[in-house]
Write a structure and sequence with these properties.
The chain is mainly alpha-helical and about 100 residues long. It has three helices and two strands, in the order αββαα. The longest helix is centred in the middle third of the chain and has 7 residues, at about 40-50. This is 50S ribosomal protein 6, chloroplastic.
């Protein structure tokens, strides 16, 4: 390696002091250009560290077969009264007293 600069050794920039000029704002003198050990985001980390199937019996295993579920009861049932006079709505229940 002929060049011994930080960017040529590690493949990224480094923390460099900012040049102070007249009329320029100073933010402390250092700027972070890259991170030496960036962290993976959550999904990338979980994809990389997920459990792998290594045993043949586990790789070739088929999903469990369950019996089909019975049909669900209907959500609504339409009740048609036999007598039109009984179609009047029953009185509402009395309100419960607050404790």
């Amino acid at each position: 390696m002929s060049s011994s600069s930080v960017s040529s050794m590690f493949g990224c920039g480094a923390v460099l002091p900012q040049a102070l000029g007249i009329g320029k704002r100073s933010d402390g003198g250092l700027t972070i250009v890259c991170s030496s050990r960036p962290k993976k985001k959550a999904t990338a980390h979980h994809m990389k560290t997920r459990p792998r199937k290594t045993q043949p019996w586990d790789i070739n295993r088929k999903p469990t077969v369950y019996d089909p579920l019975p049909p669900l009861p209907p959500d609504w049932t339409l009740v048609i009264p036999a007598d039109a006079a009984s179609a009047a709505a029953p009185p509402p229940p009395p309100p419960t007293p607050a404790p």
